[in-house]
Amino acid sequence: MVIGTGNQADRKLDELVPVAHRVSAAVETVISGKPHAIRLALTVLLAEGHVLIEDVPGVGKTQLAKALARSIDCSVRRVQFTPDLLPGDLTGVSAFNRERGEFEFKPGPIFANIVLGDEINRASPKTQSALLECMEERQVTVDGETYALEQPFMVIATQNPVEMEGTYPLPEAQRDRFTARISIGYPDPDAELAMLDSHGSSSPLDDLKPVAHARDVRELITAVRGVHVAKAIRQYVISLVNATRSSHELRLGASPRATLHLLRASRAFAALDGRDFVIPDDVQALAVPVLAHRLLPTPEALVSHDPPEQVLARLVERLPLPQVR
Questions:
Q1: E strands along 20-128, which residues?
Q2: Nearest residue to 262 via CA among 277, 244, 243, 240
Q3: Which residues does residue 17 pair with via DSSP β-bridges, in sequence order?
Q4: Could you give the number of structural domains in the chain?
Q5: What pLDDT, on a 0 to 100 scale, did the predictor assign at position 236?
Q6: Does residue 27 form part of some domain?
Q7: Has residue 321 been placed in a domain?
Q8: Which of 263, 45, 279 is nearest to 151 (CA)?
Q9: How, if at all, do strands 139-142 and 145-148 pair?
Q10: Are β-strands 250-252 and 296-297 bridged in parallel, bridged antiparallel, or unpaired?
């Protein structure tokens, strides 16, 4: 546990681990056998980011998103992405009020603390791009008017792999705005057996109650910002990102936004371990989920079936560890 120095931020950081454990335990009642995926989702939430859950159908992508949202007492909206969904269906529209004789703004589902975007890659690129301003600047501009989004604000999007029928791959600018990508994977036999017992007659989501408040999350996010990152660790993050840009196996490396996301996520990851400082292990643990979905392999790498995850893992292995004093 963190040894506080007596100020408010330290006290809130001390409270982070118990709150995170409560949320994790609540989510695990719905998604069993996937603690790593749940921890990554919590890390992104506390890092003020957004998460992309990508996997084949039926492994619990939407269940994970719903369980995390329901475990926190905050506003939650769900959007089912379809080919005919329009940008205004997300952000809202200005409608004419006959009684007042003027236009008034009707907020869309994006005006919530947690927005669940189910099968985001089934919507057209035009609708996908409606999220760009919301995710980066946490605001919405409609008809020249800008409306701020309430904090905390997190987009949890699910998608099937792009080779699935009827999907549109997310553009690079959109993928770059997701702090991390999570792949749940198939459950092991014991977890699948437990799922048959717990999900056979009813959904555990029906019994899930909030174990944290939006106010708690806001205060914990503020506390995570104060987690110390030594200069050597910051240089290590930059070296890792630069390695993706100079790799001959990648035609597109990580962006400066990716550098910032990796640093923020490392702070949250350390805090979830009860530490008020980041270590190299935090950066290494997050390198693939935070960076891999932003990278584009060269044609040669595609032919040799060498995905960005493997390229990135090799870069992490070769990069010298920082000497933290």
A1: 51-54, 72-73, 76-80, 92-97, 102-107, 114-118
A2: 240
A3: none
A4: 1
A5: 97
A6: no
A7: yes
A8: 45
A9: antiparallel
A10: antiparallel
Q: Which has more pLDDT, 196 or 297?
A: 297
DSSP lists the bridge partners of residue 250 as 297
**3-class DSSP state for residue 8?**
helix
Token look-up 């008020």 returns: 276
Mean of the per-residue pLDDT values for the chain? 87
DSSP 230-295: -HHHHHHHHHHHHHHHH-TTEEE---HHHHHHHHHHHHHHHHHTT-SB--HHHHHHHHHHHHGGG-
User: Which range of residues forms the domain containing residue 283?
Assistant: 228-325
Residue 218 has pLDDT above 50, yes or no: yes
pLDDT per residue as tens digits for the range 242-293 = 999 999 999 999 999 999 999 999 999 999 998 999 999 999 999 999 999 9
- The per-residue b/e assignment along 61-91, b for 16 or more CB within 10 angstroms, e otherwise, is bbbbbbbbbbbbbbebbbbebeeebebebbb
Question: pLDDT tier at 61 (50, 70, 90 boundaries)?
Answer: confident
Q: Look up the CATH number of the domain holding residue 325.
A: 1.10.8.80
67 half-sphere exposure, CB direction, 13 A CA radius = 26
In a domain, 215, yes or no: no
pLDDT of the residue at 205: 81
Enclosing H/E stretch for 145: strand 145-148
Q: Which amino acid is at 269?
A: F
Residue 309 lies in a domain: yes
The set of residues, in sequence order, having a beta carbon less than 8 Å from that of 189 and lying 6+ positions away, is none
Query: Whose CA is closest to 117, among 146, 76, 177, 147?
Result: 76
pLDDT value at residue 89: 92
Partners of residue 212 on adjacent β-strands: 72
Compute the residue count for the chain.
Answer: 325
Q: 7 pLDDT exceeds 70? A: no
